[in-house]
Amino acid sequence: MANENGPAGDNDVQFTPATDLGTDRTTAASDATLTEEKARGARELVKDEAGKLTGQAGDRLRAFADDGKSRATGFLDELAKSIEDAAGTIDDKVGAQFGGYARNASGAVTNFAESLRGKEVDDLLEDAREFVRKSPGVAIGAAAAVGFVVARVLRSGIDEGRGA
Questions:
Q1: Does residue 114 share a domain with residue 69?
Q2: Domain residues for 140?
Q3: Residue 94's Cα: distance from chain center in Å?
Q4: How crowded is the C-beta side of 82, counted as CA atoms within 13 Å?
Q5: Contact 91, 99 (CB under 8 A)
Q6: What does DSSP assign to residue 13?
Q7: pTM for the full model?
Q8: 100 neighbors 126 (Cβ within 8 angstroms)
Q9: Contact 121, 65 (CB under 8 A)
Q10: 21-93 and 121-134 are packed helices; what angle lies between their axes, rounded to 10 degrees?
Q11: pLDDT tens column, 111-160
C-alpha cells in the first residue's frame, strides 16, 4: 500500500488531514465557553461557601458574646450583693453616711446588670462604639485600666500556681 510520501511499510502511520478547520475552531470556542462556565460556577460555589462560613462564625461569636453577657451580669449581681452585705459593716465601723454610699453603689451595680440583661449583644456593641466616638480619651483610659486589672489577676493566678 502506498501513500503520498512513498511506499507504505509495516511501521508507517497513516495521516488524514482535517477537511474542515472551521469545525475545529468552533469546538475550541465551545470548549473555552464550557471552561468559563465551570470557572464561574466554581467562583459562585466558593462565594456561597464563604458566605455560609461567615454566617456560622457570626452565629458562634454571638453565642459566645451572649454567654459572656450572662456571666458578666451574674458577676455583677454577686458584686452588688457583696457591696450590700458590706454596707452594714461599713455602717458600724465608719458611719451610716458611708454605708449609704455603699448601698448607692450596690444599687448602681444592680441597675447596670439589669440594663445589660435587657439589651441584645448588637445593641451593647453599638453603645460601646458610640461611647468611644463621643469620649475616645475615656475609652482609652478605661481600656488601659481594664488591661492593668486583667494583667494583675492573671499574674496573681500564675504566681499562686507556681507556689502550689
A1: yes
A2: 122-164
A3: 48
A4: 6
A5: yes
A6: -
A7: 0.51
A8: no
A9: yes
A10: 80
A11: 999 998 999 988 988 998 999 999 999 989 989 998 998 888 888 877 77
Same domain, 126 and 61: no
My answer on whether 72 and 138 are in the same domain is: no
Tally of structural domains, the chain = 2
Q: Are 129 and 111 contained in the same domain?
A: no
By percentage, how much of the chain surpasses pLDDT 90? 22
Phi-psi category of residue 4: left, alpha or beta, with phi > 0 → left and psi -120 to 50 → alpha:
alpha
Give yes or no for a contact between 98 and 61, defined as CB atoms under 8 angstroms apart: no
Q: Quickly list H helices, 12-95.
A: 21-93
Q: What is the C-alpha to C-alpha distance for residues 44 and 58, in angstroms, rounded to an integer?
A: 21
| Cβ(87)–Cβ(106) below 8 Å | yes
Return the closest-CA partner of residue 103 out of 122, 125, 124, 85.
85
- The residue behind cell 444599687 is 107
Are 159 and 99 contained in the same domain? no
User: Residue 136 carries which side chain, given as an amino acid letter?
Assistant: P
Q: With respect to residue 13, please indicate whether it lies within any of the assigned structural domains.
A: no
For residues 110 and 80, the answer to whether their CB atoms sit within 8 Å is yes
